[in-house]
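Bumping my old thread because nobody answered last time. Still need a sequence for this structure:
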């Protein structure tokens, strides 16, 4: 899906033994590499992104609990 431009390039990947976790490292500003702060507005955006990723990867066996912020690795 990355090769087809459907998903951005991943930052990291980990094998869990029963699947694969992919990570995108987010930064607030390209110039200073600061991480994104978890304020309410950013949490809402995160939830929408997770929902969209889940729907794109659901047919590959994506875990529905990945949309729950309290279960993030």
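Sorry it took so long. Here it is:
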């Amino acid at each position: 899906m990355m090769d087809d431009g459907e998903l951005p390039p991943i930052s990291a990947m980990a094998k869990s033994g029963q699947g694969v976790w992919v990570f995108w490292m987010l930064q607030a500003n390209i110039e200073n590499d600061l991480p994104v702060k978890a304020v309410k507005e950013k949490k809402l955006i995160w939830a929408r992104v997770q929902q969209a990723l889940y729907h794109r990867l659901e047919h590959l066996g994506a875990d529905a609990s990945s949309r729950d912020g309290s279960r993030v690795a």
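The longest helix spans residues 40-57. Let me know if any region looks off to you.
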